[in-house]
Write a structure and sequence with these properties.
By secondary structure, the chain is mainly β. The protein contains no helices and eleven strands. It starts with a strand and ends with a strand.
């Protein structure tokens, strides 16, 4: 079982930066693909970034490419989302996601979310 807890959200001005963290528990963390999603008011949850179990592969949503960086520290069971040049459009609840394949079954785990608000 994987448990995820996000932190680091807050209120920032446009152009500012935030670093989100997601602390994971469970022995399967190092073998889990991880990612970040966000959900803005009135919108569906959208993909932000993903990282492979060893950190060697990353992928980003089009809206955040060049501004956000996902990373992970398996020794600390933590992934991060470094967000720079934040814009009001980035305002959303950010959720940490873990993907674990048990046999051939995909299992998804989610954190509680952390609010990011970017003022204009």
């Amino acid at each position: 079982q994987v448990q995820l807890v996000e932190s680091g959200g807050g209120l920032v001005q446009a152009g500012g930066s935030l670093r989100l963290s997601c602390a994971a528990s469970g022995r399967t963390f190092s073998s889990s693909g991880m990612g970040w999603f966000h959900q803005a008011p009135g919108k569906e949850r959208a993909f932000v970034a993903a990282i492979s179990p060893n950190g060697g592969n990353t992928r980003y949503g089009d809206s955040v490419k060049g501004r956000f960086t996902i990373s992970r520290d398996n020794a600390k069971n933590t992934i991060y989302l470094q967000m720079s040049t934040l814009q009001p459009e980035d305002t959303a609840v950010y959720y940490c996601n873990a993907i674990l394949f048990v046999t051939s079954t995909r299992m998804d785990y989610w954190g509680q979310g952390t609010q990011v608000t970017v003022s204009s």
